[in-house]
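Sequence and fold:
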Amino acid sequence: MKHNHKFGPVDAEGAAVEGQFATGHTADAQQFPFGTGLDSGLSNKKQVRRTIGLALLLFDIIAISVAFLTADMFRHGGLTHQQSLLLTVILPIFAMITLSKDGYSARATIDSNFGIRKAIMGFLFAAGSMLLFAYALKTSEEFSRIMFGIAVILSAANLALSRHFVTKIGRHILGNNPYAILLIDENDSASMTFGTTRSGSPVPSDYDALLRLGQIARNMERVIIKCAPENRAKWAFAMKSLNIHGEIVVEELTELAPLALTTIDGKPALLLSCDPLSLRQRVSKRLLDLTIVALAIPAALPVILIAAAAIKLESRGPAFFLQKRIGLANRNFTIWKLRSMRMNAVGSDGRISTHRDDERLTRVGSFLRSTSIDELPQLFNVLIGDMSIVGPRPHAAASKADDRLFWDIDGRYWHRNAVKPGLTGLAQVRGFRGATHAKADLVNRLQADLEYLSNWSFWKDLEIILKTFTVLIHKNAY
């Protein structure tokens, strides 16, 4: 059985188009009736974009060269032979690395933050490579490290300034969408003027219609077709004769929200789900978890033992509370907590949420919950792999809001389980914690959890971890 995956929309050059077009959306496409001439700005977008990309490269070279020249001007009155040699080697390495990392891509022509990040990363890699080469060849003593360091700092600053300037111009010329995307809407009455059949769709015997379609698609990077279901095969036939990325909107698939079209044994199939994190991302997230756990458990263990002793002294029963929670891929796992309630009042299914001034809480338990110390044993859940440091907080299956199960309020609740549950999460650092009495309590957390899934990054996890320390003691922690 063969599985061929093609993820997401691509532009005419095969590069992924990020965040531009989802099933049924045509907001980023520009529509022109077949009978009228195309706007020259749209048809020339590809060439203009490439010109701006070349301008980025030229300004990058100038920015780095000026930085090296300026660094040497203060000490030597001009560019030294050693610095000029370094510059000669660094510039081509920088250009190749930045190009390979999309530093001159369509996005880089209008997104200054993206372009600046790619340029500076490419330059630092090139400068670091140069130092390694110099050290390996034992020539590092022949140039001034101080002057080289100053040149590196000035280069980064110059790259940021030049990139900001060029992308500002690029955004002014290209707008928010740097791609030439044409929407052909069969329902537009003006489109009937270009010589199609009565149905509005071109057919193999209609030479004029196919010729006109080729003319209006010239210089486009994507052509999106909106047509009646019975005409899709005709449009598909016509688009296959063009050397362009063509798509047909199939509104019936909106409810399924497919990620991509795949083939299984030669037959088309819809890709409906996949791991939101790549293997590299999962490995980096797990390494972060293990690093933090290795540092945190030795510090947390004395606190856990003291809290456990206090619990045993105040009330009978075990010091730890174990409960089934919904985890990764909707599979149950056993969560560990320090017991905060009297033994005969603890509910194993989580049907009754803890509320403010809850009579079931012990005095020690109330303190543990208000300081989040009761959650510390979950470090061991992270250690064995049931949880992550950052992720959606796990809930008991019987948890409710407004007397309704969470997934009855919003079916997307299950989608949050595509990643491991966490000790902390985006919802928690935004203050959405505590009991879920009302519908809004659940909806606010769910929106934050789904946002976390959609925009995961290693740095975002670090940011959430740091922000967690500011909300350990919270008005909703009870």
Summary: The radius of gyration is 30 Å. The CA atoms of residues 254 and 331 lie 28 Å apart.
